[in-house]
Amino acid sequence: MYKILTLNNISVVGLERFPRDGYEVASDMSAPDAIILRSYKMHDMDIPGSVKAIGRAGAGTNNIPVQRMSEAGVPVFNAPGANANAVKELVVTGMLIAARNVCQAYDYVRALEGSDEEVEKQVEAGKKKYAGYELPGRTLGVIGLGAIGVKVANAAQALGMRVLGYDPSITVTNAWKLNAGVEQASSVDDLLARSDFITLHVPLIDATRDLINAERLRLVKKTTVLMNFARGGVVDEAAVEEALNAGKLASFVTDFPTNRLRCHDKVIALPHLGASTGEAEDNCAVMVADQVRDYLETGNVRNSVNFPEAQLPLSGGLWRLCIVNANVPNMVGQISGQLGEHNINIVDLLNKSRGELAYTLVDTDSQPPLEIIENLRGIKGVLTVRLLEPKDA
Ligand SMILES: NC(=O)c1ccc[n+]([C@@H]2O[C@H](COP(=O)([O-])OP(=O)(O)OC[C@H]3O[C@@H](n4cnc5c(N)ncnc54)[C@H](O)[C@@H]3O)[C@@H](O)[C@H]2O)c1
Ligand SMILES: O=C(O)[C@H](O)COP(=O)(O)O
């Protein structure tokens, strides 16, 4: 029986991927085998030593101590692309409501008083204050062309916008998905200077903290709308406030409200709604539950942010050793040497590495005795060793 601890509400459709006869799923339990979460901040959490995997039902993993987990030999999984359409739709919404002054106009109408006739008069008299502009021909700058950025860029082009993109590490797959005609900006600064709308779709990492700062805001046109659906830390809010107050930036649309800006007249602040659609919540939960289950049951790794991809089909009747070790010479030699010494036959073997970590799957046709497991655990550089029983044993 595997135990899954949830730290946020996770879509039932996803949790149902854990069969009841083999899994216990709860929001409070001791010694879990895996943790599934959304935005719960795990950095200060005392993570039990029983945890073998962490699944983020979403994209961003800045709420998870990924480095600490790597050092403990624990994979962190996420759900790449599973909520990208939801975010794309909210970004398009953000552009439209900013361009048409929808929030200000909405507030204006709600504050009206008088008879229907009087209200109508005020409506017709007041509407000129909220006249906006249309999107075709305007330029959208997209920083970060991953799962979300590519969808946003393509959608904006379909709306008749000119699109500039910047991503020095764009993957070949995402480059293929990008519509022809999306223009490559030569730098963030180049993109900022030429855009009417700027949208951020980068992870929050050291290199992207305060990516939009005072110096960079000096480059934008005073009519520009800045949108942040990435993470609060990607934008220096004090600098944004200064730019808005000085009339150097038209408006700021953010999914990450703070007290400094949430009530500012030129700010549209939403409560981290980017991925909050039923569809995205289901997609993320299903994807991550399947990946965590696969890892627990077969040791295979898909979509981890700290482990290498590792997929070795598991045939019935075989034992499988899953070994997480430092990416240093002679690990496979020492592992196979241990098995050879005990006359255990290796049927299949996979060794993959990513950065400082390596991951080895070894299939054997007889049961490796406990002594081998202990010896493997004793090899310098080995972080964890798991033995999976044959499925049909
Ligand atoms: N508002 C929400 O609810 C919501 C929902 C999903 C994701 N997000 C945030 O959006 C981020 C992106 O999500 P995604 O699914 O597109 O991730 P992704 O990994 O598919 O794409 C991120 C892209 O950013 C690029 N990048 C990294 N550093 C960069 C830099 N300095 N300059 C330009 N590009 C850079 C990467 O090369 C990658 O292509 C997530 O990490 C998360 O923080 C927010
Ligand atoms: O990174 C993400 O996937 C989003 O920020 C969504 O976060 P949530 O799952 O807490 O809505």
Automatic annotation (TrEMBL):
Recorded metabolic or biological pathway in which this protein acts: Amino-acid biosynthesis; L-serine biosynthesis; L-serine from 3-phospho-D-glycerate: step 1/3
ACT domain span: 320-390
Keyword NAD: yes
UniProt keywords, alphabetically: NAD, Oxidoreductase
Keyword Transferase among record annotations: no
Pfam families cross-referenced by the UniProt entry: 2-Hacid_dh, 2-Hacid_dh_C
Coiled-coil spans in chain: none
Catalyzed reactions per annotation: (R)-2-hydroxyglutarate + NAD(+) = 2-oxoglutarate + NADH + H(+); (2R)-3-phosphoglycerate + NAD(+) = 3-phosphooxypyruvate + NADH + H(+)
Gene Ontology molecular functions: NAD binding; phosphoglycerate dehydrogenase activity
Top-rank taxon, per record: Bacteria
CDD domains with a match to the protein in the record: ACT_3PGDH, PGDH_like_3
EC numbers, comma separated: 1.1.1.399, 1.1.1.95
Role: Catalyzes the reversible oxidation of 3-phospho-D-glycerate to 3-phosphonooxypyruvate, the first step of the phosphorylated L-serine biosynthesis pathway. Also catalyzes the reversible oxidation of 2-hydroxyglutarate to 2-oxoglutarate.
PANTHER family in the cross-refs: FORMATE DEHYDROGENASE 1, HYDROXYPYRUVATE REDUCTASE
Family: Belongs to the D-isomer specific 2-hydroxyacid dehydrogenase family.
Protein name per UniProt: D-3-phosphoglycerate dehydrogenase
Species annotation: Oceanococcus atlanticus
